[in-house]
Design a protein that fits this description.
The complex is a heterodimer of chains A (459) and B (214). Chain A contains 23 helices and ten strands. With 459 residues, chain A is an alpha/beta fold. In chain A, strands 1-10-7-4-2-3 form a six-stranded parallel β-sheet, with helices on both faces. In chain A, strands 8-5-6-9 form a four-stranded mixed β-sheet. The longest helix of chain A is centred in the N-terminal third of the chain and has 22 residues. Chain A is elongated, with a radius of gyration of 26 Å. Chain B has a single domain, classed as 3-Layer(aba) Sandwich (Rossmann fold). In chain B, strand 5 and strand 6 form a beta hairpin. Classes of the chains: A alpha/beta (459), B alpha/beta (214). At the A-B interface, helix 1, helix 2, helix 3, helix 7 and helix 9 of A face helix 1, helix 5, strand 9 and strand 10 of B.
């Protein structure tokens, strides 16, 4: 759970985000039509995924890139390690990518003696603190500049009172050496353009451009679902990703990369590899009802507006992808039984569905996960009995009233004897971490009956 | 079975289950209010300045040379590297010690320069973006490694929308794409620390555009 300080920092960041988004959204003629367009383009891409991926593979290969297919995290890491070993790589530098978090690439590289450094400022801060990213777009959203300055003081000897500007300069200086010394650069990909066989990377800092330029090998890891059919699709995706991600009209650098250094070019890597990762995505694809969750472009908008995310914080999810989209897809990637609880931690307010630039009905999918969990029998006996009883009581006025009265007596008794929240409390699973609301001394129905009775009395 | 065939097989099997409903065909509507031809240049200048880029419009070649020389002197750019392109070569001809790069100049060596000078493929009025490729940018590094970047463009290279820029790239490079194409929208930036905007994260802190309007 997030503490008050962390919560205040996150609220400040999301408030800044919200006001910037409102500003840039206003420059659109019709945002709602834009969302429908993107939804349709993604729908087309996902519903002919095999065709578009094969086209991508063919075109990328023709440009000298090597395309690999990885079933799961372990296989993706294996492929990357193999490339590193074959090319004698000792040092890797990375740009921001959630998919390399998903496959735990850093741990795999380090285990095999390959040093790996994150170069996105936020990711670099998270890495030297030994923490995972807090948010898919804003990795250290929960930290104040004082806390970051303290980290830089401890790890890099920067002054304690360094400003955001100073801290950025320090990171630039340190990481410049890393870029120049690295043998391998690892990036993600925001889009795979089937038509041209190129990957598209969106970023602000320029680190992804350096990562894909200076080392002699460039490896891009991408989820299967990142493919779009045509280059012109980007005319919609790039601005809408920018607005939803950070409230910018267009992100600082939107770079298309197709192949290693071509004949006649003066620089660029000698090898380019693209790893297409499944890792549960075809499982989600097979669920026709929920496959639109694969439309996600990872803009982070649903996290920024989610009251649950802002309340509990990014670390509480314990997933690669936090917030509503994480709650929707994680059960498909890692198993419903262990990850269904995320879909219950929602007020179903629908703010996520409202902001999603590709029009994913996120809160409906949370409900579907809940239903699927019940259908699959991932429900405890006590919970099952309690809900049967609840359903029965809610349909019978007599039973409802009886239960309410019994509950009132039981609560008073339990508080009198100090049972509430203790080991003896039958509702301990609930009360151990929460303050149970006090039941009203008189129910509405009782009050209403009394009122009716007093009205009938002649005054 | 290799993983490629296994994955493609699973995709095909998965897609045999039809989606509950296809989306209603979206209107082919424009995303943005149309830009009139005479609005494009003022819009570009406004957006570029808002992004903290520095824009200069030159009425003739002498003005262009003088402006670049003045910029280099004012900012103390001692080591200037220009792409071997007629526009760039001419623009830096008034800067003492400016070098026009040779074909074999590459990657990491460019880190020691103060200013990189390149051409571009086009400019996008809507977003104030500069579009360049490994061809017009003379490789991948010259436009991102030095701490300042100057782009020399002609007035005729200005287009209105991102879509037009993509079409133009396709038209020009469709047969033989350079290995890199990028939309540069303002100097390198970050807001990772408390959402405070800081320029010059890893790429150029300063971005200049010289527009040749003759």
């Amino acid at each position: 759970m997030a503490d008050a300080h962390e919560r205040a920092t996150v609220l400040k960041a999301t408030a800044t985000y919200t006001s910037k988004v409102a500003e840039t959204k206003a420059s659109f003629l019709d945002w709602a039509t834009g969302r429908r367009q993107l939804h349709q383009r993604k729908w087309e891409a996902i519903h002919r995924l095999d065709f578009h991926l094969e086209t991508f593979e063919r075109r990328a290969t023709a440009r000298g890139a090597r395309v690999h297919w990885a079933e799961d995290a372990a296989q993706a890491c294996e492929i990357i390690l193999e490339i590193c070993h074959r090319t004698g790589a000792q040092k890797a530098v990375k740009s921001k990518s959630m998919i390399t978090e998903e496959i735990h690439l850093n741990a795999a590289l380090e285990e095999h003696g390959i040093a790996v450094v994150e170069s996105d400022l936020g990711e670099y801060i998270a890495q030297i603190r030994g923490e995972p990213p807090y948010h898919i777009v804003t990795p250290v959203m929960q930290l104040t500049k004082e806390e970051i300055a303290a980290t830089f003081h401890e790890k890099l000897g920067a002054p304690r009172d360094a400003t955001a500007e100073d801290l950025t300069k320090t990171a630039r200086r340190v990481l410049r050496e890393v870029f120049l010394a690295a043998d391998v650069g690892v990036t993600g990909a925001n889009f795979l353009v089937a038509e041209t066989g190129m990957i598209a990377i969106t970023e602000n800092e320029g680190n992804a451009r350096l990562v894909s330029t200076l080392p002699r090998v460039h490896i891009a890891v991408a989820g299967l679902e990142k493919v779009v059919p045509r280059l012109e699709d980007l005319a919609g995706f790039l601005p809408m990703l920018a607005v939803s991600g950070t409230g910018q009209q267009l992100t600082g650098y939107n770079t298309l990369l197709g192949g290693p250094r071509q004949q006649g070019e003066t620089d660029g890597p000698e090898e380019m590899h693209v790893i297409l990762l499944d890792n549960g995505r075809t499982r989600l694809l097979a669920d026709a009802e929920q496959r639109e969750a694969l439309h996600c472009i990872r803009c982070g908008a649903c996290l920024n507006v989610c009251p649950v995310f802002k309340g509990v914080g990014g670390f509480s999810y314990d997933t690669t992808y936090q917030g509503p989209i994480g709650s929707v897809i994680t059960p498909h990637f890692r198993g419903l039984r262990e990850w269904k609880h995320l879909s219950y931690a929602s007020s179903l307010c629908g703010a996520c569905s409202e902001v999603c630039p590709v029009h994913i009905d996120l809160h409906q999918h949370l409900l579907r996960n809940r239903r699927n969990a019940v259908d699959a029998g991932h429900v405890g006996a006590v919970e099952w009995i309690a809900f049967r009883f609840w359903a029965w009581a809610m349909r019978s006025p007599f039973a409802y009233e009886l239960a309410a009265r019994a509950g009132r007596i039981a609560q008073r008794l339990s508080r009198l004897l100090g049972v509430e929240g203790s080991l003896l409390d039958p509702a301990r699973a609930w009360t151990a971490r929460r303050a149970a609301p006090t039941l009203a001394p008189e129910s509405f129905r009782e009050w209403w009956r009394k009122r009716k009775a007093s009205e009938r009395k002649p005054s | 079975m290799n993983s490629r065939d296994a994955i493609l097989g699973r995709i095909r099997a998965a897609l045999r289950a039809p989606a509950p409903h296809a989306p209603a065909p979206a209107l082919a509507a424009e995303l943005f209010p149309p830009l009139r031809a005479d609005e494009a240049l003022p819009r570009f200048a406004r957006e570029f300045a808002a992004l903290k880029g520095v824009f200069h419009r030159s009425p003739d070649a002498n003005d262009a040379r003088a402006w670049v020389a003045g910029l280099a002197a004012r900012r103390g750019f001692a080591r200037v590297a220009a792409a071997p392109d007629d526009l760039c070569r001419d623009a830096v001809s008034g800067v003492p010690g400016a070098q026009t790069l040779e074909r074999e100049a590459c990657g990491a060596q460019l880190a020691s320069f103060d200013l990189g000078v390149t051409a571009c493929d086009c400019l996008v009025a809507r977003t104030g973006s500069i579009v360049l490729t490994a061809q017009s940018g003379f490789g991948r590094a010259l436009s991102v490694l030095p701490p300042a970047h100057l782009v020399v463009a002609r007035r005729a290279q200005l287009v209105g929308e991102i879509r037009e820029a993509l079409q133009l790239l396709e038209l020009r490079h469709g047969k033989m794409w350079p290995s890199m194409a990028t939309f540069i929208t303002g100097p390198s930036r970050t807001a990772d620390i408390e959402k405070i905007l800081v320029l010059g994260a890893h790429g150029p802190r300063e971005l200049y555009l010289l527009l040749l309007d003759f």
